[in-house]
Specification:
The complex is a heterotetramer, with two copies of chain A and two copies of chain B. Chain A is 37% helix and 24% strand. Chain A is of the alpha+beta class. Chain A folds into three domains: 67 residues, ATP-grasp fold, A domain (Dna Ligase, domain 1, 2-Layer Sandwich); 128 residues, ATP-grasp fold, B domain (D-amino Acid Aminotransferase, Chain A, domain 1, 2-Layer Sandwich), CATH 3.30.470.20; 146 residues, Rossmann fold. The longest helix of chain A is centred in the middle third of the chain and has 17 residues. In chain B, strand 6, helix 4 and strand 7 form a beta-alpha-beta unit. The chains are: A alpha+beta, B alpha/beta.
């Protein structure tokens, strides 16, 4: 889960990290609570919003009101602006970058910092990677102060004690909340303290069960503020936590593995077809998940043909067949279904499909060609 | 022998009484894998498919020599179970669970390094050495004994390619799934190295997806360390940028993550690029294998 | 620091471990708060109080009153009883023993348990050590559930889940509070739960700085309840945190190392003398500590001669000499002082002593003989 | 060479600008110890007694080859500093600090084991190889080069015995203090083993105190592994039972901890028992050394 800025900042503040005084603005009338001058920051879950006009400093009431209205009418990188964080402006003498994350190359937590903080950090990383300082942390002993002091030295920080205290807090949050990324950019050095002016936090969805209360609170806030238009299929997939990516074509696709799912898409494309979506059930799918996944994919009215691409390892084809047959029986639907089925218990699954009047191909290429042809014929 | 496992590998199945563990244990046993014991807390003293069950790994290793463990323990309990295995001195662990929190995986992998053990996965189908040993959930009828080594980030893609090869009479030495999640133990490079050194492997098929920079690392490794031919298939060239297509590993990260950029890297170091799974048998035959 | 039972039990209860309902009784009038029947347990910091009559079950008010008075008038293994813990009696079906401690042989945390819990556990450990189950815990990963389940199995515990939850709590307390021993004996299995009927907790004084509030609260409670007679020297040594053990003889002894301190005592003894105390300053002693230590040892009126046994490694003899000279100048005292001085900076220290009219021996045996002779002559 | 250190050992002093660190660094350097660098956070770039100071161990090891570290870092910061040393790949660490919390010591020792490093201490005077190298706080004029190895739980007792030997013209190969606290790294048995294997050591003096069962373990070790003669002195035979005489190690724990019981154990395995430090020169001479 990616936190919105105001959520991340609130979380840091709760743990004792200095942040600017701020107010969340979700409608123009919230402006009453805002003291001027202020910095209005669009709460959208994407980077680069500053360059896209999503951060605006306003001095007077009239200006504030018109900028707020303007922002609420705008869409930043695909995200309609639903909320603004209004923060008191801060006098900054230096802008640093700090992050704690799981480095997937080294399989180690990584503490990272740069004296070139601010909106251009990605450029810095690309052009002058030596300006990004990295310290791997051994997870069995955690981040020790010497590693933090080493960063402080590289960043030429004067108040080392304050920096060590801040980074320790970051490490604690990272550990306690199962974060996979915790980034403060910029970390501002003001006249008398270190202050987080923007933060990005990714929490591990796989660990949500350990932090149920926090996750559900953050999620419901995000849902409340997210007014992007969503198709029926998208809404259904979110509700059912099914991995579904709409692609705009007319051939619906369900796979039981990400690799074969992508291969199937590639093959549809190469055969001249247009995939309507990517949808993968994961290795632990059963009959019910199969059935519910079909409901999601077929909720998309653009779908003219559905291809189900199955090559069970962990997934059992008898269970998949049961789910497909149940769906077909329960729904009065007319979209033709092309099934590729092989692998674990396919000997049991294929007869079940046949009995329900459905056919199954053993070969993926044949199944794809059939589906693409059917889509063209319709 | 094949890499990592062979017909003599003595296997313990952790989580042997769950739906999946019990079902897969039977398939592996029937395939010929030497399963010597199973572990499920609270189920000790019973048997599953004739395999004795213990409450604890320490009890099982007192009674049996164990070379490898395949774990079907659910994600929430996987860390505890993995540390139990590593603490008992067993040196090879296959972690099938999907959805283990990243912080747990980090500790397990670090602890494995401390204990000198190898972890395959998590979120892996495991591995199969056709005709010798199956330590995983592969649909084994799609595989046959032979001289092609397969290493794949995706389980399903390795089945698909295995199936196409077998249909064309081309057998495999070992088929390894390194794991679908964002972090995993045994690296692609380590597997490539084993294939390079394995006398029974003549050619390697490397299967990848869009996202990450795994294949760039593989390309660097191939350039420096590999003499055997490598055929690579990268799926997802039609995936739109930025869309998450299943595995967290398959997020397109800048230019490096695109299928095209991966293919370019691999081609540069002499890998043979397959456009689709269907091309692979022909490419192998061209190499005279 | 060794916690009194009621402190340990309170700490466990705060962390969610079940304990009997109880009331602390520090005077007979506290009996009003106690519901009958009750079990009265003398709060003394020693084991074996049950066998010494320190635990009494009473049924009625009259009996309770007389037993309370009796206990408050008694001394258990040298400790006058100043407080009782009055607990509701508990129906027990089994008594277990569990402990988590730092094992000094293996340098590892050790989880230990026995199905033979209760007052005879030490006998069990001696006669049937196989009934004590041990699990070493790797400190870089901590206690995992499987290790606890392994104990549960050895103890034939039915409600494994409750046991795992309890031991996890113990491990957390152990870790968070820098405990070196956390023992529950007996851990009672009652009709529906696991309950700690007695607990022993040792906290690491070296880590007191990490838990200042807790340590000072526990300490002040203990001081309030400790009415043992203490000599002036003992009180002063506690106040100054100086390691001082009274031994009853007439030759006071101060050393700058535990090893040479004990050797000096042995030599005094072998020469026919009687040590008044053991007192070691530790490797980091300076002039002030030297001076204050002399104040402690010479507060004992029995001391007729003082031997100061110094062989500086870390301790600097110039600093020791400064402390001795300062003491002698500041105090109008008549006890003869025999000094053995050698080691680091002795070349500077010895002249300082001589200048102040004090003499110093380089050889320990000579110094001891001199001191013993002087004590005999007085 | 002597055990653990010799005239070629390159030493880093951690905490070199504190009162004790600075004072002891000078003494060691004057004695002939090759001190190549010092570390104190915030003091990097300066020099102490001509020794260059760095802020971080990683900086020091970039500039210098370091074989061993002696740490004078105070107890509260000792764990952080020790892990800094161990992480940098240095394989020998002498921890002088007294009063490090036990939980911190546990982690440091375990991490040292993971990193394949040796930790002497904490709460140790360190060690001295007379005439070659001093990695500790011993009053070195009390020691001279020779062939007696000394291992002691107590620092001060080892000085006392060294002094008596030197006065009698008997030199020492290496004098090791294993540490006065309740837990410590390098064990007495490991030191005995090194002396047994060291061609420059002919006889070993083992110094102990009442409390603990250290000497019982030593007795078992001597019986199984030692051929060289061992002379043992256990102080505290006049200590009252149950009284804590300084070190936490010196608490009499049941019968095992008494001086008498320790002496019995050691006598049984053929160790020569000294009644006092003064007896030791005679006992050594009797052995013809």
């Amino acid at each position: 889960m990616r936190l919105l800025e105001f959520q991340a900042i609130r979380l840091l503040a709760e743990k004792g990290i200095f942040v600017p005084k701020g107010v969340l603005v979700t409608s123009p009338k919230d402006l009453q609570k805002v003291s001027l001058p202020t910095v209005l920051k669009a709460q959208v879950p994407v980077g680069g919003r500053g360059k896209a006009g999503g951060i605006r400093r306003v001095e007077q009431a009239e200006e504030a009101s018109s900028v707020v209205n303007e922002l609420f009418d705008s869409t930043i990188m695909g995200h309609p602006v639903q909320a603004l964080l209004a923060e008191d402006p801060v006098e900054v003498s230096r802008e640093l970058y700090v992050a704690y994350l799981i480095d997937k190359q080294a399989n180690m937590p990584l503490l990272m910092a740069s004296s070139a903080g601010g909106i251009d950090i990605e450029e810095v990383a690309k052009k002058t990677p030596e300006r990004i300082i990295k310290k791997y942390i051994d997870p069995v002993v955690g981040a020790q102060d010497y590693a933090i002091r080493s960063l402080a030295k590289a960043l030429e920080i004067e108040d080392v004690r304050a920096f060590v205290s801040l980074i320790r807090k970051i490490c604690t949050i990272f550990q306690e909340l199962d974060a996979t990324l915790l980034e403060i950019n910029p970390l501002a050095i003001t006249s008398n303290e270190l202050m987080a002016l923007d933060a990005k936090i990714l929490l591990d969805d796989k660990a949500a069960y350990r932090h149920q209360e926090l996750f559900s609170e953050l999620e419901s806030e995000q849902k409340y503020l997210d007014r992007r238009h969503k198709s029926r299929a998208e809404e259904l997939s979110e509700k059912r936590q099914i991995n579904y990516v709409p692609l705009g074509g007319n051939i619906g696709m369900i796979a039981d593995g990400a690799g074969t799912g992508m291969l199937t898409l590639d093959m549809i494309h190469d055969a001249g077809g247009k995939p309507a979506n990517f949808c993968e059930m994961g290795g632990m799918a059963n009959a019910e998940i199969m059935q519910r996944t079909m409901e999601v994919v077929l909720a998309d009215d653009l779908v003219k043909v559905l291809i189900i691409s199955l090559i069970g390892g962990l997934t059992r084809m008898d269970e998949m067949a049961e789910g497909i047959v149940r769906y077909v029986k329960d729904n009065d639907q007319s979209v033709p279904i092309v099934i590729r089925m092989c692998g674990t218990n396919a000997d049991a699954g294929i007869p079940m499909l046949r009995e329900a009047g459905l056919d199954a191909y053993e070969d993926l290429a044949t199944a794809v060609q059939t589906a693409v042809q059917q889509a063209k014929d319709l | 022998m094949a890499i990592l496992i062979d017909e003599n590998t003595r296997v313990l199945v952790q989580g042997i009484t769950g739906n999946v563990g019990s079902f897969q244990a039977q398939i592996m046993r029937d395939y010929g894998t030497k399963i010597v014991a199973g572990v499920t807390p609270g189920k000790g003293g019973r048997k599953v498919h004739g395999i004795p069950i213990y409450d604890l790994v320490e009890e099982a290793v007192q009674e049996h020599q164990v070379d490898a463990v395949i774990s079907f323990v659910p994600a929430r309990f996987a860390k505890d179970a993995a540390i139990e295995v590593l603490s008992s001195g067993i040196r090879f662990l296959v972690l099938t669970a999907e959805g283990i929190p990243d912080h747990d995986v980090l500790i397990v992998l670090r602890y494995a390094a401390i204990k000198g053990a190898t972890v395959l996965g998590p979120d892996t189908p495991g591995l199969i050495s056709p005709g010798k040993c199956k330590l995983g959930v592969h649909p084994h009828t799609m595989f046959m004994e032979g001289r092609v080594g397969i290493v794949s980030k995706s389980g399903s893609l390795s089945y698909e390619v295995g199936r196409v090869l077998t249909k064309n009479g081309i057998g495999q030495s070992t088929v390894v799934g390194i794991g679908g999640g964002p972090i995993w133990g045994l690296s692609q490079e380590a597997v490539l190295q084993m294939f390079e050194e394995d006398p029974e492997t003549e050619i390697i098929v490397l299967l990848g997806e869009v996202g990450g920079k795994l294949e760039h690392d593989a390309a660097a490794f191939i350039e420096e360390h590999m003499n055997k031919p490598v055929i690579a298939l990268i799926v997802g060239h039609t995936a739109p940028k930025g869309a998450q297509m299943g595995h967290a590993g398959a997020i397109i990260e800048g230019e490096e993550g695109t299928a095209a950029s991966k293919i370019t890297s691999l081609e540069r170091v002499g890998a043979i690029i397959a456009k689709s799974s269907l091309d692979i048998p022909e490419l192998i035959k061209k190499k005279g294998i």
